[in-house]
Structures are given as structure tokens and as C-alpha cells.
Structure to design on (95 residues):
């Protein structure tokens, strides 16, 4: 059954750049139609990408996909799950 397994972290590396881009747009709350307009591709192409992404990530729906993306650091939502690097100047002044 789709979405019943635990997402495999190795699968995250199998997502293409386009699929990762679509994951970000799904996490931003866009519909497939809105994603197709944003990326200037057909809705059917988006539907296919979403289907492939759900299979690769072992998630069964968009909510589970966003949870997966947050868990594996693929998206940042309202400063949640965001990693900011310390300022180099601050590190030098501490030393």
C-alpha cells in the first residue's frame, strides 16, 4: 500500500531537481494547476511528477509529502526547519 512504509532517506537523493522544485511548491500550498502555471508546464506533467514523487518518497498524499520534506530538510516553511549558518565575523570575534 502506498504511503504505508517509512520513507527511506536514500530516496531523497533520487529526486530530480524538477521534482525537488515541485516539492517546494507543494509545501508552499500550491495546487497542481498553480504549479503548472508557475513552472510553465502542463498540469498533466505536474500530476505525473507528483505521482512519481509520492512513490519515491513512500508518501501517500501531499500532507505526508510535506512532512517528509520537512523531516529530510528539503523545504523551509516560515523559518521552521531552516538552517542558517553563523556569521563568519561573529565567529572571528568569539575566538
Amino acid at each position: 500500500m502506498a504511503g504505508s512504509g517509512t520513507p527511506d532517506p536514500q530516496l531523497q537523493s533520487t529526486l530530480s531537481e524538477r521534482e525537488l522544485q515541485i516539492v517546494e511548491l507543494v509545501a508552499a500550498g500550491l495546487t497542481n494547476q498553480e504549479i503548472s502555471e508557475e513552472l510553465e508546464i502542463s498540469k498533466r506533467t505536474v500530476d505525473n511528477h507528483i505521482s512519481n514523487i509520492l512513490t519515491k518518497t513512500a508518501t501517500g498524499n501531499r500532507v505526508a509529502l510535506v512532512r517528509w520534506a520537512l523531516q529530510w530538510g528539503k523545504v523551509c516553511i516560515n523559518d521552521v526547519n531552516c538552517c542558517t549558518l553563523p556569521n563568519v565575523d561573529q565567529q572571528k570575534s568569539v575566538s
